[in-house]
Specification:
With about 270 residues, the chain is an alpha/beta fold. The chain has one domain: Rossmann fold (3-Layer(aba) Sandwich). It is about 40% helix and about 20% strand. α3 links the parallel β5 and β6 (about 110-115). It starts with a strand and ends with a helix.
Length: about 270
């Protein structure tokens, strides 16, 4: 389905019934990254997974506000448009983290539980090589233009342990010229120093909400030490997985989510 959120046209997966569970993907992904998990949870939960603004099949204006406040506002508008009034389960990965965690900080009463996978919300984080290149005007555009299907495939195989070439090629097929431009805009708008203050609020929130960190350890972009930065959360490591944990181990992740939600009675 497609929703109109402000000036953005948002592609959305909305399957199942039960407690609303919002899945927010990372870069350069789409809602497809959650497919193997949603298929296992939708008999018990209402699973909602948008393509984030400017990514996947969604569109966004070139002046979309990718500040933390702007991303939080977008998620709140999405939740409101969907008519969700009860606290929902939030699940985030990669750049879905800043979107969803900023929203949780701003609207804690709308959050029932939080699950975090391989993302950053720490002011002392420093960008990986590609992040630094993408943030640099002109250089970022050149890197994007020179990234071929083969080069993209090699990089994702390096950063993961279990992604298949079929999964990677499907992801690459959704990276249009427009998506490439929005990727650069997101990275250039996102300075880790902006997490100062927000990260403290998030830790206070997670101290009083059921929360879980699931972490693929073979991640060249975000060091494993950042898994501990979310406060008194439960942390489970997946040593045989890389950055794309939702796609690399969907069965194991889905089983852990079901167990977590049953314990929390959500």
């Amino acid at each position: 389905m497609t929703l109109r959120i402000g000036r953005s046209s948002i592609h959305l997966v909305d399957e199942g019934t039960g407690r609303p569970t919002l899945f927010l993907h990372g870069n350069p992904d789409s809602s497809d990254v959650w497919g193997g998990i949603i298929s296992r949870l939708s008999s018990n939960y209402r699973c909602i997974a948008p393509d984030l603004p400017g990514f996947g099949r969604s569109t966004a204006p070139m002046d979309f506000d990718y500040s933390l406040a702007g991303m939080a506002t977008f998620i709140d508008n999405l939740v409101t448009t969907l008519g969700i009034e009860e606290p929902l389960n939030l699940v985030v990965h990669d750049i879905g983290g800043p979107f969803g965690l900023a929203w949780a900080v701003k609207h804690p009463g709308k959050v029932g539980s939080v699950v975090i996978m391989n993302t950053v919300f720490s002011s002392d984080y420093r960008w990986h090589l590609f992040g630094r290149l993408w943030r640099t005007p002109v250089i970022g555009e050149i890197v994007q233009a020179l990234t071929s299907r083969n080069g993209f495939t090699r990089e994702l195989l390096r950063a993961s342990r279990k992604l298949t070439r079929e999964q990677i090629h499907r992801t690459y097929g959704l990276i249009t010229p427009s998506v490439k431009k929005m990727m650069l805009r997101w990275y250039r708008a996102t300075d880790p120093r902006n997490f100062a203050g927000w990260e403290d609020e998030l830790r206070r929130l997670l101290a009083r909400k059921p929360s879980l960190v699931l972490w693929g350890d073979h991640d060249p972009y975000i060091a494993g030490r950042f898994a501990t930065r979310f406060g008194p959360s439960m942390i489970e490591h997946f040593p045989d997985c890389g950055h794309w944990l939702p796609s690399e181990a969907p069965e194991a992740v889905a089983a852990r989510l079901l167990d977590f939600y049953r314990q929390d009675h959500t």
